[in-house]
Amino acid sequence: MPKVPGFRMLVLTALLGCSSLFGSAPAKVWIDTTPACTYAVQGWSDDLLGYIASGDGSGSFDFDPVDDPRTALSGVYDPADGAFDWQVNFDGDYFIDRVDVEGEGTVYHDGDLDLLWTSTTRDVLDQVFTSHERRVREGCDVTWVTWDDGAEDAALRFDGRYQDDATFEWTADYPGYDWRGSIWSDASSQDIIEAEDGSYDYRTDTFADGTQESGFAVDCYDGLRCKGEGERDFDGTSSQSFDVYDGADVVAHIEAEFGYNGDGTQVIAYTGGDTVSCTFDVSDDLASCSYRCDDGSRGQC
What we know:
The protein has helices at about 15, 50-55; strands spanning about 60-65, 70-75, 85-90, 95-105, 115-125, 130-140, 140-150, 155-160, 165-175, 175-185, 190-195, 200-205, 210-220, 225-230, 240-245, 250-260, 265-270, 275-280, 290-295, 300. The protein is mainly beta. It folds into two domains: about 1-165, no CATH class; about 200-300, no CATH class. It has a 20-stranded antiparallel beta sheet. The longest helix is centred in the N-terminal third of the chain and has 6 residues, at about 50-55.
């Protein structure tokens, strides 16, 4: 059966149980309910299809996601007009406070998706970020476009595919860079971004416990090269440990740690033996940042 714009139907009865938004459905219906993707992804796809499938068949859902940062995800999908919304709450020690999503679109009977939504994120500093996403899934293939509020010209396109029952891989259309990643059924993920000219190489691994690890080799400090690794803790605190290269020679080693609000410290150990320690302070309104170092230097970040 071809998909017709405006034809909206909740996920197949087999996923949702015996009840249906259209009344008491017979055990067998004329619609082909064979999942469009041959892999078993509905239980971990972390999208509207999976959310609906976790519910009682009414279109409402309310559950605790498998990852540690999110403590509750609840919402509803109305197949009559395609409207949906959901809210995400987070652990009190995490650096994100809440996410609210509103949108419209179609969840097809075979599991395909055609959705457009706006996401509003509030962090623990009361900063609010608004973004938009257009997502289409056909079979095991997913295409999505994201852009920040008021920045449609800077929209990014991503294309991905479920590889098996536990792996999703994607690439991004980002001129000058090779940007790709993987998402796994245990809520972990990895993304890698490499500049075609070799100036930037960054890998980030995100884990279900809400932490991250990274490795990087990037051009920095007026033609020098920085190579090292970093971590992000559950509360948003981040740290980095890296060497600074001038050609093949290491000229300094840097250890840095910053809180989610930007306050932090940085220690620079030069190969010649000198060490400089600096402290960074961000104003309460996040509008300004200053630093001071034990060699007497100071200034604005």
